[in-house]
Design brief:
By secondary structure, this protein is α/β, with parallel strands linked by helices. About 40% of the residues lie in helices and about 15% in strands. It is built from 17 helices and 14 strands. An eight-stranded mixed beta sheet has the order 4-3-2-1-5-6-7-8, sandwiched between helices. The chain is globular, with a radius of gyration of 21 Å.
Length: about 375
């Protein structure tokens, strides 16, 4: 078997992140021409899943479920029920020619295993970004885990091949992390075609509805968006603003700021938890999707365009840059947000051209990762 794909991070901490969406599509689109075993811990050893079994496991966080369901219990139950080959660490060492770490992981067991594999086989990683190192203020790590964070990024600089999700990420790896230039660092863009393309209908909203999706991290500028929106309201704006995403875990004042705006009766909503199908309806029914600040990539931008909703963006936004003129508009700088809210009336929004068929394709991404994971890859 050629490639071992390490899924322990997901098994231990399934939370439906953007990164784990990438894993789901990687499994769904994994090319049949490259044999792989998706490695999951069970009991004191491991089981090897096929790509289709891995996809079945990875989709658990993204399907509708009862509120307050324990995702870890659901995932563990799914793992226990799989009929799959069981092995131990020695078995893994003798079974694979290459080892792929597809998800950011600070788990000591995952990192130790990756170091061990790197001594005897080809290793590869999907490189998402270096933001925990370059913008640590947006992340809250458990006490005592800082060395694991550093170790993960050290391995990112040393492994044989990295597939970066954007040119921005690749430059971070080389310029900030000092990944050597003689080690291949490829760029392949995650896709947006997991959603069916939808045309944008005439707005059903009486006033423009602006939507921003993502956790309330400072780098995503939720407070700046809200402040600009409130200033525009004082100047006569008639519009609604919706946030969808979990609370900030690193700066609780951000959460308080949004909650205060809602308490004061501003036309602001904050939905903290939502399943995929409901989220996609919110995105489709919004008039404008906002993406501001710093993103390693930005799959929600592609999803918005796939659903027919135009995107206004500013800052480091690789996915939005790819789609500029095909559904996204760079308004220049976040300091202009107040004017943006006032400028984009329902009539103006209807003039924005959106091409949902122009988004990157998952198959191309999965093919690149799979080929880069094989020692004898050729590009």
């Amino acid at each position: 078997m050629h490639v071992g794909v390490d899924l322990e991070q997901f098994a231990r901490d399934p939370y439906g992140s953007g990164i784990q969406r990438v894993l789901l599509q990687l499994a769904r689109q994994w090319p049949a021409t490259i044999s792989a075993g998706f490695v999951v811990p069970r009991d004191r050893g491991f089981i090897l899943l096929s790509a289709s079994q891995a996809a079945e496991l990875l989709e658990v966080p993204f399907v509708r479920r009862e509120p307050d369901t324990d995702l870890r219990q659901l995932v563990q139950a799914k793992i226990e029920n799989f009929q799959a080959l069981e092995t131990d660490l020695d078995g893994l060492l003798g079974m694979f020619d290459s080892w792929l770490l597809p998800e950011v992981s600070y788990l000591p067991a995952v990192l130790q295993r990756f170091r061990m594999m790197s001594e005897c086989m080809h290793t590869a990683m999907i490189g998402f970004d270096a933001l925990p190192m370059t913008h640590p203020e947006n992340y809250r790590f458990k006490p005592g885990t800082g060395s694991n964070v550093s170790e993960y990024f050290l391995q990112l600089t040393k492994c044989n091949t990295v597939v970066a999700i954007s040119d921005f990420s690749r430059s971070e790896f080389s310029d900030r992390l000092r990944r050597p230039g003689n080690l291949p660092t490829l760029v392949s863009h995650p896709g947006g075609d997991h959603l069916a393309a939808r045309a944008k209908n005439a707005s059903v909203n009486p006033v423009p509805k602006f939507l921003r999706v993502g956790t309330m991290e400072a780098r995503k500028r939720p407070v700046e968006i809200l402040s600009a929106f409130e200033r525009a309201l004082h100047r006569g704006l008639a519009a609604e603003l919706m946030f969808i995403g979990g609370p900030s875990a690193s700066d609780f004042s951000i959460n308080d700021c949004v909650e205060d705006a809602i308490t004061r009766g501003l036309p602001v909503q904050w939905i903290k938890n939502v399943d995929d199908s409901t989220l996609h309806e919110y995105v489709h029914n919004a008039d404008i999707f906002l993406s501001v600040g710093i993103e390693g990539y930005g799959i929600p931008v592609l999803e918005a365009i796939r659903l027919g909703t135009p995107v206004l963006y500013a800052g480091i936004q690789p996915a939005a840059d790819i789609m500029q003129g095909k559904g996204s508009i760079n308004f220049g700088d976040e300091s202009l947000l107040e004017e943006v809210f006032l400028e984009y009336t329902l009539e103006k929004i209807q003039t924005i051209e959106v091409d949902p068929f122009a988004v990157p394709r998952w198959k191309e991404f999965a093919d690149t990762v799979a080929q880069a994971s094989v020692k004898e890859y050729a590009f």
